[in-house]
Amino acid sequence: MNHSFASDNYSGVHPDIMEALQQVNHGHAGSYGSDEYTANAIQKFKEHFGEQIEVFFAYNGTAANVLGLSTVAQSFNAIICSDLAHIYVDESTAPEKFIGSRQITIPTTDGKIYPADIENKIQRVDDQHHPQAKVISISQSTEYGTVYTIDEIAAIAEVAKRHGLYLHMDGSRISNAAVSLNKDFRTFTGDAGVDVMSFGGTKNGMMFGEAIVFFNPDLARQFKFIRKQGMQLHSKMRFISAQFHALLSKDRWKKNASHANAMAKLMADKLKRIPEVRITQSVDANGVFVTIPKAIVPALQEEQFFYIWNEKLSEARLMCSFDTKEEDVERFVMKLKQLLTLTSEF
């Protein structure tokens, strides 16, 4: 099967993580998280994020975001996010069904939202006729592959705290963001003012599994019931836990994300030399956004599939993974050049 640039979800499972699954696939162990593997994985999270955290495992990213948000927002509340946010664009109506909150969006050109725009959306406080803003949700890295700096996150957290709001982080690609910032996880999450966060594993080499991390333990007090009600209490929890333990050990998360980010940089460097295409966003993490002439898109997708992000602009999203190889990038760029040459001859 040809390597695609469609999504880091298309990639397989990292060999070390597959081995971790094999290692726990022997004998019996307690169910629903009452096993030593889950305890060990939780301790790994505490090593990275601090002893004060509470962490829970879920099966997929939609659940991690929606259930995490449901602890800090009620149905009469509003969640402020970008108009590209995964919870607004790609979680279908799961947030509305399980939380009931309104999502108030902020238009973005780079995937980020900024304090002044957030302030403008905090309106009619204590007005019973208006949804009450309660949560600010940001993605790290963003849906445009850009990465918030620590100062940018802290500034948003300051707005949240000043208005009595919570700050939620969608961290489906948080490892790629950490590599981009060259910082440990804690510096741009809990230490920067994040209250609750989803931590993605499947986009960085895991088979399945996501985590919900609470930096304020009080917020997690009822979460075990929320997770059960949300149908995300995995019975054989050790098969999620073992993966997270392997990912967070021996810097595997960092090695995987570093490679994916490096491949995106390589792709961007090569595409910059082609006059007919234009990179539209800063390549901070493992995604490259680039405009490609519409005439060659179908043939290029047949060679190595990718998604068109903005059809009007013919803007493509090229995602790199832990298993992307330099020859995959070379092959894509070569095919792109060939198609451009053929097009120019007619």
Short description:
The protein has 346 residues and is of the alpha/beta class. 38% of the residues lie in helices and 16% in strands.
Task: Explain the overall architecture.
- By secondary structure, the protein is of the alpha/beta class.
- The protein has two domains: 15-247, 3-Layer(aba) Sandwich (Aspartate Aminotransferase, domain 2); 252-344, Alpha-Beta Complex (Aspartate Aminotransferase, domain 1), CATH 3.90.1150.10.
- It is built from 13 helices and eleven strands.
- The chain has helices at residues 15-23, 36-49, 61-70, 86-89, 94-98, 115-121, 150-162, 174-181, 223-229, 238-247, 252-271, 297-303, 326-344; strands spanning 54-58, 77-82, 102-106, 132-139, 166-171, 196-200, 210-214, 278-279, 287-291, 307-310, 315-319.
- The longest helix has 20 residues, at 252-271.
- The protein is globular and about 60 Å long.
- The chain starts with 14 loop residues before the first helix and ends with a helix.
- The mean pLDDT is 96.
